[in-house]
Amino acid sequence: MPLTKLQFRPGINRDVTSYSNEGGWVDSDKVRFRLGFPEKIGGWVKYSSNTFLGTCRALHTWVTLNGTQYLGLGTHLKYYLEIGQSFSDITPIRKTSTDSITFAATDGSSTIAVTDSSNGVVENDFVTFSGAVSLGGLITAAVLNQEYQVIGVTNANTYTITAKDTDGVTVTANSSDSGNGGSGVDGSYQINVGLDTEVGGTGWGAGTWGRSTWGSSADISTTTELRIWTHDNFGEDLLINPKDGGVYYWDASVSNAFTTRAVEIGTLAGASDTPTIARQIMVADNSRHVIAFGTNTINTTVQDTLLIRFSDQESFLDWTPTATNTAGDLRIGSGSSFVRAIETKREILIWTNSSLQTMQYLGPPFVYGIQPLATNITIMGANSVASVQDIVFWMGKDCFYVYDGQTRQLPCSVKEEVFFNFNDGQEQKVYAGINSEFSEVTWFYCSDDNSVANGGDGQNNKYVTYNYGEKIWYYGTMSRSAFLDRGLRSFPTGADDGYLYSHEVGYDDDGSAMTATLESSPIEIGDGQKFAAVSRMIPDFTFQGSTTSAPVVDMTMSMQDYPGASYSQAETSSTTLTASSTTTVPFEQFTQKADIRLRGRSFALKVASSNVGVRWRLGSPRIDLREDGRR
Question: 102, 154, 226, 302: least buried by Cβ within 10 Å?
C-alpha cells in the first residue's frame, strides 16, 4: 500500500473523548503550535545570579529621563528595583522608633528578644537597628546594627530575631551577653509583610501573625488575600501600592535614587487628601490622572472597596476636588468589591467580583464616567487579566473570557483539564502573561495535586495557553509566579523562586535538559474485525536552531484494540501475535526511516525530547500500513 500521511489538527483538545478527537492532539507539555504545526517552546536562563526575597507577583518596566531602565518587582515580603542585574530594596518604612529599643539574650541561644512598645510587627517583618552597643559578649554592636527579619511575636511590645554576623552566619550568645544594647537604639520598621498563601476563616492562622492583640482571632470571616502589588510610573518616578495598603512614591531624580526607599505620598509637601488605603493604583496614560481603586472616602480612613478616586490632572499629590481642578471620585454601581482595573487604548476596564465596567475620560466638568458592560461574570483574581492589541483576556472561576468591544466566554478545548484539577483555595495566585512574539496569552496557576494538602508546595506549577492568533489551546507544567512580555527588554521575563528568568532563550531549562512531550488521540486504522499492521515510519522533523550537533526526538507509536483500552506492550487475545504493540524510535537529524512492527485497530503517536540543546518542529510524518486479519 502507499505511504499514509499523518496530519493532525493544531491545538490540544481534552474536553471530548479520545475516540471523538481522532486526528487531534490530546496532551502536551512545553509544546506550542505555530502555523498549525507543533514545536518545542523556547527555553529560559537566569537573568541574574542575584536573588530577591519572597514570591514575586508584580513586574513593571520603565525608562527614566536619563535613559536608565528600571524594573519594579513586588513580592509578599518586599518591593525591589532591578537595574544592571542588581536588586535594591525600596520597601517603605512604616515606623521609626528612637531611643526606645532594648535587647535580651540567653546564654547558649541565638534568639534575641527585642522590646519596643507598641511596635506593630507581624511575623516575618523586617526591621533595621542602629545605635546599639555590644551586649557584652558575642552579641556585638556589629551583630545588632543591621537588618533583621522577625521570627516570632511574643506580645504587643516584644518580638524575637535570630542573631547573625554581617555575613549572615548565626551567632550564639554567651554568659557575658547580659546588656540591653544601650539607651540610644533606633529601629526602622518596614511596612508589614503580606501573605504568600491564601488563608480562609477566622482564628489561628488566618491573617499575618501578630496582626492584632495577643490571642485574638483575625478580623475577617472570609479568605485573607495574598500580598499583591500594583505599580505605575508617573513620568520617570514610580507609584506603588500593596493591595489594601497605602500609596507610596519613589523619586528617580535624587542622587542616590537606587538606594532610596519609597515614601507614603501623604507625607510629601503639597499633599492634599491623598488616599491612605487602596486596592490598586494606576496612572491614566491619556489624561495623566492618578487613579486609586477601592480606596478610602475623602476626610476619613474608612475603605470603600467600590470607591474610585482620581487626583488632579498632572499631579499625584492633589486629591481635593475643587471648582478649579479635576480631582474627583466615582462609585461602582454593581458587585460587592473591586478586583482589578486594566487600561486599554480606548478605556479603563474595571472588574468587581460579579461585573465588568468601563471607565472613560470625558473631560471637565465630569472628568470621568463609568458604565456597566457585563454582569454575572466571574474573575479568578487580580492578576488573571492580560491585555494585548486592545483585546483583554481573563480567567473566570470556571471558564475563560474575552473582551474586544463586547464581553463573551472564550471557547476552550482544555477547560476540564484546567478546572477539574485547580487548587480552589489559591485563586489569587493565577497570573496571566502575554508572549506577543507567538500570539500567546498564558495563565500560570496552582493545580490541586500541588496543593499543600496533597503534599505539594501550594505554588503555581502549571500553565494553560491560548494562542489568539490561531485560536487554539495548549498546556503544560511550569512554575512561574509572574510574567512580563518583552518590550523594553529583549526577551519576556518570568519570576520564580527568588530569580528572574529571560524566556525564549535557547531551548533548555536554564542550562539543563527540558523535556517536551506531545501525544495524539487514537487514530483508527481498521474496520470491524480487521486489524492493521504498520511496518515503516518516515519522519518529518526540522531541527533548525538546535545547539547540539546530534539532536534526537523519540516518536512512540502505541496500538490498541478498542477505544478506551490501555496501550500495552503485548497483545493478549486468543491468537498469538508476533508484533509488539508499542514501538519507540529515536529520530536523529538525518534519520530516513524506521522499520517497525505494530498491529492493532488504532494507534496513537507520541513525540518527546529530553536532551540538552534540542529544538524540533514536527511536520507530516508518514507510515506504511496494510490491512491485517485477526491471525
Answer: 302
Strand-pair category, 622-628 with 531-538: antiparallel
- Domain ranges in the chain are 4-41+515-628, 94-190, 229-380
Cβ atoms within 10 Å of 78's Cβ, excluding its own: 21
pLDDT tens digits for range 195-254: 998 876 444 444 554 444 444 444 433 347 899 999 999 999 999 999 999 999 999 999
For domain 94-190, give its CATH number from 3.30.200.20, 3.30.710.10, 2.40.30.20, 3.20.20.10. 2.40.30.20
Q: Report pLDDT digits (tens) over 94-134.
A: 999 999 999 999 999 999 999 999 999 999 999 999 999 99
Report how far residue 375's alpha carbon sits from residue 29's, in angstroms, rounded to the nearest whole number: 35
Over its C-alpha atoms, the chain yields an Rg (Å, rounded) of 29
CA 403 to chain centre: 22
CA pair distance 421, 431, nearest whole angstrom: 17
262 pLDDT above the threshold of 80: yes
| Residue located via cell numbers 507614603 | 264
Rounded Cα gap, residues 331 and 58, in angstroms = 26
- Show the CA angle centred on residue 595, arms to residues 589 and 598, nearest 5°: 125
- Angle, vertex CA 390, rays to CA 387 and CA 395, nearest 5: 35
